[in-house]
Amino acid sequence: MTFRAVRRWLVAPLAILVVASAVAGSVSGADPVPGSAGVDTSIPATDSQVTVKGRGRFADLEITVNQTRNLTTQAVSVTWKGASPTVEGPGRFASNYMQIFQCWGDDDGTVPENPGPPPEQCVQGAVGGQFGGLPGGLFPAGLMLSRVISREGWANYSEDIGVLDPKTNNVWLPFNAVSGQSVPIQVNSSFIPEDPDSRFWLNDLYNIITTNEIPGGATGPDGTGAELMQLLTGVQSTGLGCGQRVQPTADGGRKIPRCWIVVVPRGTPTDENVGTPFEVNADQAGVATSPVAPTSWANRIAIPLEFNPIDSPCSLQNDERRLVGNELFFPAIASWQPVLCATPGAPPYSYAPVSDASARRQLLAPGAASSGMSVISKPLEADAVAPSNPVVYAPLAGLGLVVGFNYERLPNPSGPEAAQRLAGVRVAEMNLTPRLVAKLLTQSYTDQLNINSRPPYEWDDSNPPHLGQDPDFVRFNPEFELLLVGNSRTFGGLSLPAGNSDAAAQVWEWILEDPEARAWMDGQPDEWGMRVNPIYSTSAEVNPSGISFDASPPTSFPKGDPYCYQAPTLAGSGVIPPLLCGTDWLPYARGFGDVGQIVRTASDGARIVENPFALTPADVWKREAPQFVGRRAMLGLTDTATATQFGLQVARLSRVGDNGPEREFIAPDGDGLTKGLATLAPRTDPEFLEPSTDPAPGAYPLTTLVYGAVTPLSLDADARDEYADLIEYAAGPGQTQGLAQGQLPRGYVPLNETLRAQALSAATSVRSL
Q1: Is residue 354 a contact partner of residue 325, using CB atoms and an 8 Å limit?
Q2: pLDDT tens for residues 502-516?
Q3: In terms of pTM, does the model score above 0.90?
């Protein structure tokens, strides 16, 4: 069963227009149509897709997970059919919805026809785990987000089902970690906000930031629904330990724990609230009980998962063969490495992501700890390479740079009924031009600098607060005329990787070569009066620094505006809060992979929430909680391998110079990337292909290619052979796409025959030059 099938309720009854996201097409201004930005955000089925049926009153329910083997830290699609439509009031999730968790452990034997883990071993209960709770309008008041499963004095009370908190008389279901650690009670009922030593959340194994639980998945009018779930390995969730040999065994050893996705279908309040005070006037209360309470858990549906081993198969006793280079290559080498080092006589290959510039420097001036191969996306300057020590370039992997997004529809209350029915459904498609991306990169939307107070600028008087209210964006994405934005802070800028990179240089080149974007960066307003933040202007006369932004070709994504917000002194303690600046308001990510997780979870960790009880400046600004279900609005710059791994939706982009009203927007899919690779051409080095500033129609504009660079004459024979082996693997078995270790991960595009031949020729040169 595909996601497109389970989303049929969104299409037929409402006469919604769905545009296939994988097809490039011309777009111009049009009347907004609910759903015209697409509703299918599914991840394709794999050969390990599994469907499991429900039981009892949920016997008609079928749950499908698109991938259950060869898993890593990634997103999977969880879809269902045969359920009762979700009912709103009180809250969006009043009854008939799904709650989904990741769990660990052996089958507990309670449901022979559907083996699964005990509820004590599921990551659940943290979404509501912040002091003050969630904003209203999502869930009814009650315990449906917690691990409180009963209360002393209730009809369903038993001393045997959990841990009694004598302070509140609440009965908690403990969380038992794979390590043997147990957390009996997760919330401190005696929490004192003004006491710095008092803790509200007591579970050190997961919290509202790190949990991957889905507290509410809605079912549509035809009984179908879908969610994307972020799976965690033991690296991200030590309580689960998935993929790691951490579960103690009876003989004193360790094994890899069995892991699961567990779906708890929630029914009507009358059924779910039995034995509690909420069963009185149940419909007015909504579902108000915990999904891990015995009555609800009895209906759980478990789907077993198999993760790729996290523990390295490479022998640490062997001398490693080091590589350094840009992060775009990391998913590929991470997949290839276990197979490479399992080859008899082969060394373990280690990869350290560094900036492209640093990787090039290691080739030019190698030191004792330098790598013998650097992975880069631009060649070394010709005059920097000594003729007596030439560089050999081998193409290794092709992929694309993308704007990933996670936007859940928040309809304008005055919009049509058809739009209201799509509330919370993710947008699948987005079209962006070089100028729009420039706006997102230059702190030019007003809410990028509206840090609790607006700076005293005049240049931004005609600028919209965020992307969703920019007519320049809406004309190519007309459905957004019907929509609001749940978080304008994260919808007027991009989550960006820190540091310098060839990728950043490529993005800026695409922007600055485009006439429309260049004119705007120079300082000319767009047709609606929006201006560039002057600190980024490519005109020295406009830029307050007196220097053009591109006086030196930019190789990073600077947050250059100097405005910072000074909060008033805290009344109680007299503490002066630290300044909040642009890098605090929309913080940098550690890299492209980090951007993928940020966009998927809609949580960038910005420390911008004031703690009025802080006793030191360092404690004033606390991390903002993840964005709430149905209100997520997050954008980020990442790559196609990362976006595929985390199930991100990605924007289609227009080509340089395609500035007319009818523009071609090209998706970074297999076709767009393959055509993009075919348009790469040499610039400064005949052996090194680089992106064209004028790619052919249908070619994705930000296609890129990573090369392995080696100086063979500075290496010994063993190093030459081992780097050549790696290049030959990359050009051969490594180009076979698949989910298994050793294959080319999804999101990369296989090299064409010409590039493979170049790589094999390079391997020969590395050995014999």
Answers
A1: yes
A2: 999 999 999 999 999
A3: yes
